[in-house]
Fold these 2 entries.
Entry 1:
Amino acid sequence: MRLDSNFVFNKIFGIEFGVLSPRMIEKMSSVAITSSELYDIDGFPVDGGLADMRLGITDPGLICRTCGNTIKDCPGHFGHLELARPVFNIKMIPKIYDLLNATCDSCGRILIPDSILKKATTTMDNIETREGPLGKKRYIRKLIKHAKSINTCPFCHSKQHKVKLEKPYAFIYNGQKLNASDVRERLERISDADLQFLGLNQDYSRPEWMVFTVLPIPPVTIRPPITLESGQKSEDDLTHKLTDIVRTNQRLAENIKSGAPEVIIEELWDLLQYHVTTFISNGTAQVPIARHKSGKKLKTLEDRIKGKEGRFRGSTLGKRANYSARSTISPDPMIRLDEVGVPLQIAREVTYPERATEINIERLKSLIKNFDGYPNASYVITPDGIRKKITESTVQNILEEVKPGYVVERSMLNGDIILFNRQPSLHRLSMMGHSVRVLEGKTLRINPASTLPYNADFDGDEMNINVLQTEEALAEAALIMNIKNNIVSPRHGLPLIGAAQDYISGSAILTRKDTKLDKSTVEDFLTFAGIDTKLNKSTYTGREIFSMLLPKDLNFEGESSVYKYSKDEDAYVVIKNGKLEKGIIDSATIGKENGSLLQYLFVQYGGETTAKFIDQLSRLALITLTKFGMSANIANFDLPERTMGEIHKIFEEGNEEVNSMLKNYDKDVEQKILALTNKIRGRVRNATREGINENRNEINDMMTTGAKGSIMNFFPTAGMIGQQLLRDVRMSNGYEGRLTSHFKRNDMGLIPRGFVVSNYRDGLNPIEFFLHAGSSREGLMDNVIRTPVSGYMSRRLSSALQDLKIAEDLSVREGNKIVQFMYGEDGLDVSLSDKGDLNI
Amino acid sequence: MKFEVPKKYVEKFMEKYGKDADIDKLQAAYERSLITHGEDVGVIAAQSLGEASTQLTLRTKHAAGIATLNTTSGLPRIVEIFDAKKEISTPTMNIYLKEEYEKSKQKVAEFANRIMEIKINDVVSSYNMDLKRREVTLLFDREVMKSYGFTLRDVEKLLSNMKLEVEASENSLVIRDKTADSVKKLIRLRNKIVGLTMSGIKGINRVIINETDDKRYWIMTAGSNLKDILKIDEVDQTRTTTNDIIETYEVLGIEIARNLIIKEVSETLENVGLAVDIRHIMLIADAMCFSGEVKGINRYGITGESSSILARASFEVPLKHLINASLEHDVDEFKYVANNVISNQVAPVGTGSVKLISLDYGRKSEGKTDRKNKEE
């Protein structure tokens, strides 16, 4: 058997599961293990040892004696070990237990009368067609349970003695221990005809195969020794365990041969059983755990398979990718929304295999010529699959050789489509297609408008790029996965990509009623934003400039954030035929997770138009801010004397009320006080809101436009912070009867129970500060606990629902089962419709 | 395939543009907004809820008022619903009475007192146990008993069908049981007696009367017993609900349980201000219910019944699934997502659910391989 790396493998259509029979184990074995030694004095593998060269090769340079391949191509081969006495497979014990009690102890037939069995065959088929294979399994489970309860064999009429299982693997029958040989004998007696009622199959899982007589020895390739720096070889845990098994088996065989006393044989047999058990599963209940000399637990077969780092979750569902890169991200508002700035270093290193054709061959040749510069090519692959590195010495030959049909691995170029991703990848928008823009510097650059779907910020976040290697992948990334086509989230139908903070402030300033610009400024603006139109007026309003970004046939109406706040008619957004007639463009129309205009544009005009709109708008907003300026200062938080007095009064009134409540003590008083503190907070908030000086107050502008912050941030800054809560009640624990030693014992008033009278601007006193920090810490802890809980829920959901997909008739199916007759009852795609509704 | 616009949208469209508006425009908009065939909607639903749940609060939060109940909310509630737990942490009912009763506060209050479960424990002030005489003495609180309208006779009657000797005095009962020959048995006897329901409906621990804007009264309860509540004459069966999904399934059936899942999940999300489209919640609810019984989203529920062995094995406890599969000679057909991902093949969802026959890098095309396999 020779494996070629260019071999065409067939598609896998399914996997059949079964139990290995001793004959099968011998048949697939390439060597019988006879020695517990690994290497001889010269360091060569011993013939018939556990490192036999017929089991596969782990050393470079050696050739496998079974397949003739080197380390690269040899897949490894099984061996086998003839066991001196049979042993149980620990994982089969529960089934063996079932079988022993469900079958007759003398004739081996299933303990169910023939009359029922005759009917059972047809019932089983009926159930299978009606309820599927799981239904059949349930029925078989019932049959077995029934058989286990029967005490007289319906066939040979002998009285049954039931077997008891003493964990982990001792079967007690009639007060005597059944050893593995006895059990195997009984299992052999079960007839093929009965197997179907026991959930077994004569060709794939004969019951006696559950007891090993021959042990398969895994190839060395799955347990390679590691050579330490000192030159010593350190064996894998599996090999350690296998050596134990082989050694014990040898001793057992010798003792049997020499006719040793039964006690000694029993003891060695038990030891062999123990080693085989821990070889399969090191951690079965009531079996001592096998350890290294150092006390470390041996990692055996089960440990390799299960868990997050196991074969399934760690190796086959999660794979490592080549052609990828990772770096810190930083913002760049000047690149397009769908671009990602890639450092030159990465662009040179990570390649894309471009197929040479008559059209592009000249271009590719020039890349090959420039192999040590940029843009360059680093490898060519001939049609025979030979990979050639381009170097100083080979470049001439390769240049002459390359012709259509060759594949050239070239560096990343501007405009290439790549995948961009940030972990944790919580939803599909955590990985989207971007086009490459090679830039200087060492960070990956990202347009700040597209940070929300990735949940990225720039405090040291790192992100990954994956360069696609096939045309199919490229096409999907360029179309389906492209960020431009994923502006609107499938979760709620709102745009996740859009303006935030400065961009909202900027566009709000631009679209104010009184914003007017002269021609030369407008020219600057439009150049910066990349808009190409003829100007024929000497002055323009900001709204006219904004209208230049809109499609000419756009009609839109909607509330702006400012309108929601102030009910100012002029702030209500009206766009007619691509002209912004009135209204302020702010977070309610263009903001992230908000923007109604963006959502409308995306649904009506598509991703391309929306992306272009966001790009141009953010630049327009930027230059507007640069031109007009915007700065906040501490005076923005000033509240008039009157308001401060009112806030003080609110607190005093509350305090008095609390005192009077405490005088007329009843059992609900604590709850009543809690409700009162909420009321105080609400009143302070309202008083603050009314007291804000709206004249030239940039903080207020930021709040009303939705650029940043809200009254919930403003009132504790300017007014009063209020009650600090711990687990949703007023703080009370600390010293006996009081929070800190600064208060009187058992004083349940406002301040002694964590009410903060100060505000952030004036500062908190030390006690307030301490209590406030206590309350904040609760939030941090909550977050730490929440993350794994919600992560596990996510995993369960996607595991359960991963196979649900839309069929051609828009029903939702899982395989051949129908889950919904019409997806979502109307078949609408959330991200393509109006937030899951159909409005035109 | 042509899909007709659902009625509700047609009606809305007619209302907006008049009866003789151009319906083709609506049809075009509808077709443009349709979901794409092959779309992996299960994963989208899972991600929509999973991503949103990272923003949910973990602990129960309740409004600071007096007349409210403490119900589980936020992430724990969502997890509880998706697990299809038999015993939910805070069962509660909203009981509405028939129109003739619900307007009178007095009648509603009377009703509320009637359904509230009162155990013997609630009227006992103290008790005594005597092992030597094998008897338990219960001392009753006269005042409380009176307020509930009970007499000692009622308690006696309740105990009469148990095989016990009961001796009544002024405000105490002496209960003798000859079989109670150990402290353990005596304590068990006492607990059994004290836990007996004197009146009301089992499981209804607390009742709170709420008022609507138009002066109608309804009852909120801690604890739930839908089956018995619905049997009562005054109860309006069309509006009375519980938040216990399994109970609803057992009493009213699978369709109602499905609707309750949708309602409870969307309300929980709404309370914390998270927007998740109802389609995703519906899909999860349907996946939990389409087999005819409510199944949780865990290894004992729908994940454990997935058709693909490798999908099950890759979720939790892999060895169990692999061993059962080999014993039963199962075949894992590679028609699902997990097993195709495992084997580095194109999964049959999305663009992978359609086939394009092309010459790929000079290798044999997939189409040919298919045919070859079939011939073999």
Note: Chain B has a mean pLDDT of 83.
Entry 2:
Amino acid sequence: MTSGVQKSGSAGRVGQWLGQAVAYALFMGCVGYFATSPAYQHTAPDQAMLKLTISHPGQSREACRERSAEELAGMPPNMRAPMDCPRERSPVTVELRLDDQQLFNAALAPSGLHSDGPASLYRRFSVPVGTHQLLMRLNDSVREPQLWHEARRQLDLKPGQIVVVDFDSPSREFLIH
Amino acid sequence: MALIEWDDRFALGIDSVDHEHREMIGLINETWDHLQREDSFPVLDFLGEINARISAHFALEERIMRERKYDQYREHKAQHELLLDEIRDIMDDYEDREVFETDTVAERLREWFLGHFRTHDARLHRKLG
Amino acid sequence: MFAVAERGLDRVFGQRLNPFYHLGALSFLSFWIIAASGLYLYIFFETSISGAYPSIEELTHGQWYLGGILRSLHRYASGAMVITAVLHLLREFSLDRLRGSHWYSWFTGVPLLWLLVASGISGYWLVWDQLAQFVAVISAEWLDWLPIFTDPMSRNFINAAAVSDRFFSLLAFLHIGIPLALLLLMFVHIQRMTEARSNPPRGLALGTLASFIVLSLAWPALSQAPADLDFAVGSVDLDWFYLAIYPLVDRWSPGAAWLLAAGVTTVVAILPWLPPGRRGPAAVVNLENCNGCGRCFADCPYDAVTMQPRTDGASFAEEAVVADDLCARCGICVGACPTATPFRRASELVAGIELPALTVHDLRERIQGKTEGLDGEGRVLVVSCRERPRVAESAGVVAVELPCVGMLPPPFVDFVLSRRLADGVMLAGCSDCDCRYRFGNDWMDARVAGERDPALRARVPRERLDRYWESRPARSATAARLERFREALKSLGPYQRNAAATPTREVRDGAD
């Protein structure tokens, strides 16, 4: 297809080839460079990492109670369970302290529409390398607010090391990896 | 008296084409009327209208030929192009007053229409109609 | 904004191959390179945590002459696709090709960007090197911000013991599924275009492919150190095309990154409707002048005209029907209509299809009015499209503007020259392959060459017609071109129709 226009003004065929080569080189240069550079520093060389992660169902808010005979009689036959256990769970309160600094302290709400699922948490902390004292505390029942599960640990952190703090629900103990 | 009279031989059997042929004949006859009255302005306008109508007619005819895979499409279309050039020639000649004798113009118009019709459109009728 | 760069590239590549006119097609080309190389890579990839990294190392180093090159092609074509897609988007925005009926293309392009980025992210994840670890951990944190998981996804990457092989299989599946969805959406994206250009011209495609190969040989794509979830990632060589948001998630917060992403996406997506565009009425069919010849249907660049069974009882089989919401108001259909000829009597000058904003009747009046003011020798009527800067008028030059140069029915050129309203006609349109309405100059070129109906009659002397295809010419360039044209016209003498009585056109069977 002719266009009736000749794009003149260029330096002839050699100039055109050269220009095209420059254009391609520029484009590919960008592609090649930005595919791997500049580098990004995620963790500084003098830092280690602490990951706090919990997935733990709190205790139920109200204790189970036994239903009286009159109550049972008044219920439809297929629903006459002797114990009435409300589903709602307590929030789980977690506290994490490193040396004398409080890293985390909050109450985690239970998940689910009826608040009967586990409370979960994931937090990442950047901490300097070296020796530290770690204190972890957890309370999972509004009916026993004084009952805390505790653990202390001494950590010797190397650069880039990741320490995971987890809570094992069956054994009700902190796990530190 | 009309310049061209409709003849049933003109019928191709395709409604749209036959309708346009009738229209064309009507236009040519009207042009002939104005030619005889020698009022130049409307003649040019009518020639222009013929030009427009025949362009549209050829466009439609070509579409039908393509769709039905008519074997002499190229030749027939080449004829259309010639005719379009000729009608422009008639228009320009009339405007430049190179040819002012009404009979000559009328004869050219008549021959222009019938010539194509006798040959190419007749064959088209045989093949498609 | 793109004008300077495009003019420079025009000089170097020629208008037909200028990559800036083919950015969408180049994105498609990149996709095919990615897909083809990806298929090969997939054959050798082991979908397990322990096997992923070694299998890629083997491919990259052990099979450097084939697998390694394909891997590099895979990575670089991916990066290139982001560049061409973003340039394409910016260009369409700067040319305001997103309003009215164009909204569909723009709007479907937004999720395309998301799918593209997701494809790349899932790809980097599969390598299971330090970068993949970084991507995994930060992606999980980013997604955890959304209330969709009861158990945070990050727990899957808490340490080396937590990641499972099944997760890897899921990732491999995603890395095929998401690009497939991307491809599907790419085809949806080009729907409202007749003959959308999804292949770049051969010269450009070959040049691009060759440069990719050169780049792959010079800088092979390499994996970084293997992933080890027990140790935090220090420094990573980031692919900024796909992972630019990750430092943001890391340094600011997942929530802030979501806000930014959602905000930008929303603004970009609703651009076609902000502030209201003035479109004018769509093309209108006039049944008295339409016999269903179908030329407007053949020429419309946006599938806005269809041929339907007749509704007015006339003896014609079909009539043209315009879909208002698809019509771009370019007028190319008017240029194609055989009844849009100025030789007709004024009382009947209504074409089978018209743009109400500029009817054929009004166009003729405008041309007649303007050319009356022409004086002297070498008088030129410029018919320009509205994309071009206005042409300066003078005693010897007048200009008329159309939405697109393709709107001008060829008989108008015949009319202006044979009635000596001007000595020459200049058609001023966009650059080749850059017509705002896609086919304006292509159709005009073909009509003038006699290859497309309605053809410009052979009797029209072509020396009196100048086609100036240049989207954003410098004012001096236009003036110089006009000067040259006028000089040439002066030396031609008075108008004479072309001697040829037999048309010189080549009649192609069924081709239009």
Note: The radius of gyration of chain A is 32 Å.
